[in-house]
Design a protein that fits this description.
It catalyses: D-threo-isocitrate + NADP(+) = 2-oxoglutarate + CO2 + NADPH. The protein is α/β, with parallel strands linked by helices and 471 residues long. 45% of the residues lie in helices and 19% in strands. It has 17 helices and 17 strands. Strands 1-5-3-6-17-16-7-8-15-13-14 form an eleven-stranded mixed sheet, sandwiched between helices. A two-stranded parallel ribbon has the order 2-4. A two-stranded antiparallel ribbon has the order 9-12. A hairpin with a 5-residue loop joins strand 10 and strand 11. Helix 3 packs across helix 12 and helix 3 runs parallel beside helix 17. Bound molecules: nicotinamide-adenine-dinucleotide. Nicotinamide-adenine-dinucleotide (NAD) binds next to helix 12.
Length: 471
C-alpha cells in the first residue's frame, strides 16, 4: 500500500528578490478571496526549490490533523523543496482496508529511510469501531511504530515568548523521554480473594524453581481480599532507552537526568540507575564532557521539586508511568498542547520520526465537516515537518535543507510573537473572554498563510546569501 515518488510539481523559477514577493503578500492577506485562489497564487509564484538528496517518509493521519497536514504540505513544503516523499496513508479507512498492513509497511520504510514525519492518527476504541465500521479494534499506530523501531518518544515544548506559561519560571524547554515498554504496559494485575496468599515465583525455561517469595497473605472475611500486580522490564529495553536518551541529549545539547524511586524499589528501579550509569561511564561521559553537558540520576520526588523550581533546559528520562504523567504536566505547564512536539528516536540516534504531540482534534474536525470556520493550531505539525527535514539534512549533510527547516520552525514562532495566532493561544495570551473575540485570532488557514509569508522572507535572505545551493 505504499506510494512512493516525487510529489513536487515543477514550479517556474523566479529570481530571488523581495520586491518580487511583495504583490503576493498584499493579495494573500486579502482573506475575502476564496482560499483555493489564494493557494494557487502561492504556487504560481513559488521560489526556486531546494533539493533534498534522499527521501522523507510521510505518514498521513486522521480528521483535523489530516486537514492541517495537507495544507502545510501544499503551502509550506511543496513550493520550496524538491523532495522525494515516500507516502503512507495511516488514516483509519486505509488501516482497516489493509488489516493494518499499511502501518507495518510504513514502519519498514521508516527503518529504511531513517527520516520520517507523521500526522496524528485515531487509536480506535469501541465507539470508533462503530463509527468507521471497522473489522477490528486496531492497536495504536504509534505503539506499533515504537515497538518495531524500538525507539523512545521525546516530548518537547515549542517556546514562544508571548504565550504565558502555567509555570512562569520555565524559560527553556523541558524534554520528557518516556520509556514506553514493559512496566504498566505489560503488567498482569489481578483481584485477590480473601483468605489467600500471593507469591512471586521465578522458574527456569524448563520449569525448575529458582526463587519463590511471598508477596502478601490476604486476611479472611468480607474485606480481606485486595489486588495484586506483577510487572517486568528487560535489561535490553532499559539499555536501548538509555542509549536513545543520551543520543537525544547530545543532539539537543541538553543536560540529562534519570528519575527513579530506587530507595523503595531497590532491585527494580535500581536496575535503571545502574544500566544508565554503566552506559554513561562507558560510552557517553567523554562526549558529554566535550559538549559541556552532565548526567545525573535523581529520586523522582527530588526531580519533580527541582523541575518545578528550575528554568527548564534539560532532558528528563522517565520510567513508563512517570513519563505518562510528567509529559502531560509539562504540556500544560508550557501553555498549550498545540505547542508540544514529539519525536521518536532509535537507540543509535540515526532514525527519527517527528510528529505533533496532540491528537486528531476531533471537535475541530466536526466543525470543518459542517463547512464551519476552524482555528486549529498547526504549529506542532509544522515543527514536525521541520524536525523531520532537519534530521534528513543532518544525515545527508545538506546545510541548505537544514537552513530551510530552521527557517520554517522559526517562522511559526515569529508569527505568534508578532501577535498572529490561533484561538487556543489567543485565549492563553488574552484570557477566555478577549481571546475568543474573532478579531483577536486567526483561522486555521489564515495562520498557515501568515507562516508562509514569514517563511518566504527568510528564504529570500537565505537565497540571496547562497543561490548556488539551489536548483
Ligand atoms: N499522536 C497521535 O496520533 C495521537 C495522540 C493523542 C490522541 N490521538 C487520537 O486523537 C483523537 C482525539 O483525541 P483527544 O481529543 O483525546 O486529543 P486531542 O489532542 O485531539 O485533543 C485534546 C484537546 O486539546 C485541544 N487541541 C489539541 N490539539 C489542538 C490544536 N492543535 N489546536 C487547538 N486545540 C487543540 C482539542 O480541541 C481538545 O480539547 C483520538 O481518536 C485519539 O486516539 C492521537
Amino acid at each position: 500500500m505504499s506510494i512512493s515518488g516525487c510529489f513536487v510539481q515543477d514550479c517556474p523559477r523566479v529570481p530571488w528578490s523581495l520586491s518580487h514577493l511583495s504583490p503576493r503578500r498584499e493579495r494573500d492577506t486579502d482573506t475575502s478571496k476564496p482560499r483555493e485562489i489564494r493557494a494557487t497564487m502561492s504556487n504560481v509564484r513559488c521560489l526556486p526549490r531546494i533539493r533534498v538528496r534522499n527521501p522523507l517518509v510521510e505518514l498521513d493521519g486522521d480528521e483535523q490533523a489530516r486537514v492541517i497536514w495537507h495544507q502545510i504540505k501544499k503551502q509550506l513544503i511543496e513550493p520550496y523543496l524538491d523532495l522525494n516523499i515516500v507516502y503512507f496513508d495511516l488514516g483509519l479507512p486505509v488501516r482497516d482496508a489493509t488489516n493494518d498492513g499499511v502501518t507495518l509497511d510504513a514502519a519498514r520504510a521508516v527503518q529504511q529511510h531513517r527520516a520520517a514525519v507523521k500526522a496524528a492518527t485515531i487509536t480506535p476504541d469501541e465507539a470508533r469501531v462503530q463509527e468507521f465500521n471497522l473489522k477490528r479494534m486496531y492497536p495504536s499506530p504509534n505503539g506499533t511504530l515504537r515497538n518495531i523501531l524500538n525507539g523512545t518518544v521525546f516530548r518537547e515544548p515549542i517556546l514562544v515568548n508571548n504565550v504565558p506559561r502555567l509555570v512562569p519560571g520555565w524559560q527553556k524547554p523541558i524534554v520528557i523521554a518516556r520509556h514506553g515498554f514493559g512496566d504498566q504496559y505489560k503488567a498482569q494485575d489481578v483481584r485477590v480473594p480473601p483468605a489467600s496468599r500471593v507469591e512471586l515465583c521465578i522458574l527456569t525455561a524448563d520449569g525448575k524453581e529458582i526463587e519463590r517469595r511471598e508477596v502478601h497473605r490476604f486476611a479472611a472475611g468480607e474485606h480481606g481480599g485486595g489486588v495484586a500486580l506483577a510487572m517486568f522490564n528487560t535489561d535490553e529495553s532499559i539499555r536501548n532507552f538509555g542509549k536513545s536518551c543520551f543520543e537525544f541529549a547530545l543532539k539537543r545539547k541538553l543536560p540529562m537526568y534519570l528519575s527513579t524511586k530506587n530507595t523503595i524499589l531497590k532491585a527494580y528501579d535500581g536496575r535503571w540507575r545502574d544500566i544508565f550509569q554503566e552506559l554513561y561511564d562507558r560510552d557517553y561521559k567523554e562526549r558529554f564532557a566535550q559538549a559541556s553537558l552532565g548526567y545525573e540520576h535523581r529520586l523522582i520526588d527530588d526531580m519533580v521539586a527541582q523541575a518545578l523550581k528550575s528554568a527548564g533546559g534539560f532532558l528528563w528520562a522517565c520510567k513508563n508511568y512517570d513519563g505518562d504523567v510528567q509529559s502531560d504536566i509539562v504540556a500544560q505547564g508550557y501553555g498549550s498542547l498545540g505547542l508540544m512536539s514529539s519525536v521518536l528516536l532509535t537507540p543509535d540516534g540515526n532514525t527519527l520520526l517527528a510528529e505533533a504531540a496532540h491528537g486528531t482534534v476531533t471537535r475541530h474536525y466536526r466543525l470543518h465537516q459542517q463547512g464551519k470556520e476552524t482555528s486549529t493550531n498547526s504549529v506542532a505539525s509544522i515543527v514536525a515537518w521541520a524536525r523531520g527535514l532537519a534530521h534528513r539534512a543532518t544525515l545527508d549533510e545538506t546545510p541548505d535543507v537544514l537552513q530551510f527547516a530552521e527557517a520554517l520552525e522559526r517562522s511559526c514562532i515569529e508569527v505568534i510573537q508578532g501577535g498572529k495566532m490561533t484561538k487556543d493561544l489567543s485565549i492563553a495570551v488574552l484570557g477566555p473572554e478577549l481571546g475568543c473575540k474573532r478579531e483577536n485570532y486567526l483561522t486555521t488557514e489564515e495562520f498557515i498563510d501568515a507562516v508562509q509569508e514569514q517563511l518566504e522572507t527568510h528564504l529570500v535572505s537565505i537565497g540571496q546569501k547562497s543561490p548556488q545551493q539551489r536548483i
